[in-house]
Amino acid sequence: MVINAGVADSGVAYKLAQLQALFADMDRALIAYSGGIDSTLVAKVAFDVLGDRALAVTAVSPSLLPEDLEDARIQAAEIGISHEVVQTHEMDNPNYTANPVNRCYFCKSELHDTLKPLALERGYPYVVDGVNADDLRDYRPGIQAAKERGARSPLAEVGITKLEVREIARMLGLPWWDKPAQPCLSSRFPYGEEITVAKLQRVGRAERYLRQLGLKHLRVRSENNTARIELPPEQIKEFVLTTHLPTLVEAFQSFGFLYVTLDLEGFSSGKLNRVLGATS
Prior knowledge:
Blueprint: H1 10-26, E1 29-32, H2 37-50, E2 54-60, H3 66-79, E3 82-87, H4 94-97, H5 103-122, E4 127-128, H6 141-148, H7 154-157, H8 162-171, H9 197-212, E5 219-223, E6 226-230, H10 233-242, H11 245-255, E7 259-262, H12 274-279
Parallel strand pairs: 1-2, 1-4, 2-3, 6-7
Antiparallel strand pairs: 5-6
Helix pairs in contact: 1-2, 2-3, 5-6
């Protein structure tokens, strides 16, 4: 059943109607479902239109936090969509673990090389992802890997931006409409530094520690044995004044870091991509 948006913004309502029509034309679809707000909106609209002819599949590997998998399970259950989990093995690919600038290409290649056969086996003619229109303007080598394997990006196809994703998600009553972006843990490392399971685990433990302090928007960037904490600029002063820093440093060192620093510029998504402009 197609939902009536019932909103004042006719432009956003029109895009939602286009998204619904796109899924109606598909008849059956498998959603590459990370649990982030983009793929959650795709899963929601796909389920509203297709019902049990939509399937959400989450890929699990060392680069995914266990709590992110649990979030995906909870959200899929709340939506009502069937949800399955598959293992991916990008960490077995030296092209991925070497962490080149196109690392995401190898990750998405592994993802869609896993999902496409599953979709064909289950009778789903389409594999779709949560790429939005803004993503097309960023450096996203993974998009090319998905396209090469025939995946579709419904949000991007109808021109829905990141801001509109959140607006539509809120309109449709999704309680996670303002969920912070949570890219894979491999994105915390500078290009060229080898990624290992142990390094991913220590970053995951460090970010979990900060979230237990009540912080939501954050990153722990890892360079060699140094952790660099990024927080929204407006939260930095309060963090320094209210956090017992020696205890935090001791905790991070127990995770495997030798040094702990605070980025005075503050949180910025995709900050590590700056080197691409500097070297181009």
